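Example 3.2
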Amino acid sequence: MKIVVLGGGESGCGAAYLAKKKGLEVFLSDKGAIKDHYKQFLMENDIEFEEESHNEERVLNADWIIKSPGIPKKAEMIGKIHEKGIRLSSEIEFASEFTDAKIIAITGSNGKTTTTSLIYHILKNDGLNVGLGGNIGHSFAKQVADENHEYYVLEVSSFQLDDIQNFRPYISLLLNLSKDHLDQYNYNYEEYALAKFRIAENQENDNFFIYNKDDEMSKNILEKLEIKAKMIPFSTKEKLNEGGFINDDKIVVKIKDEFSMKIDELSLLGNHNVANSLAASIAGKILEINNESIRNSLMTFQAVEHRLEVVTEINGVKYINDSKATNVNAAYYALESMKAPTVWIVGGVDKGNDYTEIEDLVKRKVKAIVCLGIDNQKIVDFFKNKKELIYSTSSMEEAVEISKSLAKKGDTVLLSPCCASFDLFKSYEDRGDQFKEQVLKN
């Protein structure tokens, strides 16, 4: 069987490595330049590759093509692959065909990385033999090739789910839905939502689907879809007979027996993280992890870098790095969790943002807005009659300097940009790292 892998990053190289290890004929092709350490990896493992162009004839002669999630669905080459009827899969689809491990797969518009990491922490902390992959950590395919895990916890994006055929997790989890990446889904919110729901499409009645009962779009879609897996809801708004919910100041999970713990004992900040903790606890209970172990994990978990990450406190001012908040919904959660007057650093590449969603929160929680981007006009125009203190900056150094001058003892400086990072930074990680560096400068 001839395997062609498109894309020479973490997932592509992992998929090529797994194919090679399984004795399949494999060729990797990347339209851009491949990073040196990945090139080194391909050469060390005797995997044939090309970069900065696609040998179309060779690509289209494949029996099975594995596509990296970063390649747009509308790319010319993808159109040609579909025309020829060649099987096209994501790395998670490909790798899942070579393992009998139980897969816990997590998707959603916000909170995926945190919840995936939290579930991994719960399993690892209980002594289970577990791997972490998908959109996070090391390539799932490479782990399947080299490591014999009994469980995999995978963060899964809509782009990866677009390219599945048989992918069937033991537990699938859909955290929430909000308008994101709509440019890849014909600006159709329902089309994007349906892509997320594909996480459950191959599940059978011996599998589990955890979903958010409070999420409006999920409710709408569930009326139209038939899901075979056992459905278990969570809610922060209503008490449930089965699933996860809040009762007074506690999270409660009812599956067979009952698990509960005080919300203020959770290591994660914010209402949205209460929902994430409920979802993760349900997964733990399905896997029959005992209550004490789940409680210990929820108390000891460290927040994911760049997601409501407390950097430091200087002169009574708390600095929080939420650089991973690249859409309005993510920034909403961050602002909602702020307890102190907040200097808010926002801006970057706008993805068609509608700031009315956070208008009320900004009025109530934010004392000053510091815009950070090449073009801050849209944000300035939207908030100029709603907030007196609005500043425009075009470097992280300037943004942090102004924020420090505005913040008083007891305040919080929050980087939660609402936007993509590519105008001034290499990535959201780079943006968060630069924020931390500038904050910690004397």
